Amino acid sequence: MIPAEFDYHAPGSLDEALALLNQHGDGAKLLAGGHSLLPALKLRLSSVGHLIDLGRLNELSYIKEDQGNLCIGARTTHYEVESSALLQQKCQLLAECASHIGDVQVRNRGTIGGSLVHADPAADYPAAIVALEAEIQTVSASGKRSIKAEDFFIDMLTTALEPSEILTEVRVPSFAANTGSAYLKVPQPASGFAVVGVAAIVVLDTKGQCTKVRVGITGAASKAYRAYDTEARLTGKRPDETVLSQAAVQATNGIETSGDIFASAEYRAHLVQVYTKRALMKAAERAKGRA
Ligand SMILES: Cc1cc2nc3c(=O)[nH]c(=O)nc-3n(C[C@H](O)[C@H](O)[C@H](O)COP(=O)(O)OP(=O)(O)OC[C@H]3O[C@@H](n4cnc5c(N)ncnc54)[C@H](O)[C@@H]3O)c2cc1C
After folding, report:
1. Average pLDDT over residues 151-177
2. What are phi and psi of 18, to 5 degrees?
3. Which 3 state secondary structure label does DSSP give 103?
4. Distance (Å, whole) CA 276 – CA 270
5. Burial, 50: exposed, middle or buried (Cβ in 10 Å; 0-12, 13-18, 19+)?
6. For a disulfide at 131, which of 3, 82, 199, 283, Cβ 3.0-4.6 Å?
7. What is the pLDDT at residue 211?
8. CA dist., res. 89 & res. 79, Å (int)
């Protein structure tokens, strides 16, 4: 299908993009990789008066280290995240998560900023972003803002971003030596999106006990969430098979899992528990390798 008519703008700088967003208000939308927005426009699920293309804003395309944090510009593609030597070395979780997104065409065009703002409940990044306790940086005409990952995702396709704001950067912590992580996913066979995706981080002390555990889950509910009960159950314990099994069954506590034609709510809950255990096991193994 052909989208409804709109005016197209291609600003050459962030300041210019902000001025256009300010000028056109609610009638404007930002375009990044276009892999979520363009299908929505073509199917007329969405319409826009002014499309502001971020494609020329190279200033939003980078991966760099700053004071113990890794900073990823909003226009960085999934492929750039997946293949970044810096991330593979210092935040393997994010690189591994990106490698699970769609296919090579999607990873070459889609951006981390676009994916987070779109907030598809079955998208991969949100699991890693909440597990990593990332900070989302934004800018608008009235200034800059930093939003904690967990406060960023409000509901299905809904985030804390204001229409006047541009997501500029994602900040994640650099891993300590004794940290292991893993992202595991059950892909929907037709779309590739996550039926369930689990991001796990395990930090071990010298005795092999967990000093910190983080688990982020996507695909299972209307937005990505942290499995706090699982994390608490493991902290201070040695991550053996029994302990991991007991912790993993807590991963759906308080969560209303979603059901659809492909996977019922009960099946999704089961997948969450099984994949939480597997992801934690893999993360713990990797942590031992990095101790
Ligand atoms: C065939 C196919 C398979 C896919 N499979 C997967 C998958 O397995 N896992 C997965 O996670 N995703 C998958 N995706 C989605 C893909 O990851 C998209 O790239 C992503 O959802 C959107 O990123 P984008 O850069 O294309 O954003 P766009 O489509 O350009 O924009 C998406 C939304 O974000 C807004 N936006 C974009 N950038 C900014 C910014 N900097 N600041 C503020 N707002 C902004 C736009 O206005 C729009 O509302 C798939 C997509 C396709 C087409």
Report:
1. 96
2. -65, -40
3. coil
4. 10
5. middle
6. 199
7. 97
8. 16
pLDDT score, position 68: 87
Please compute the mean of the pLDDT values over residues 151-171 and round it to a whole number: 97
Reported as a single tens digit per residue, the pLDDT across 201-234 is 999 999 999 999 999 999 999 999 999 999 999 9
Global pTM? 0.97
Mean pLDDT, residues 8-27 taken together: 95
The response to whether residue 102 sits with its C-beta less than 6 Å from ligand 1 reads: yes
Alpha carbon of 205 to ligand 1 centroid (Å)? 38
Determine the residue of 22, 29, 117, 137 to mutate for testing ligand 1's pocket, defined as the one with the most ligand atoms within 8 A of the Cβ atom.
117
Provide the edge-to-edge strand list for the sheet that holds 69-73: 63-66, 69-73, 166-173, 135-140, 143-148
| Residue 76, both tokens | 């960085």
Vertex 29, ends 23 and 34: CA angle to 5°?
A: 145
How many residues does the structure list for the chain?
291
Question: Is the minimum distance from the CB of 166 to ligand 1 under 6 angstroms?
Answer: yes
Ligand 1 atom 40: residue of nearest CA = 167
Percentage of the residues of the chain whose pLDDT score is greater than 70: 100
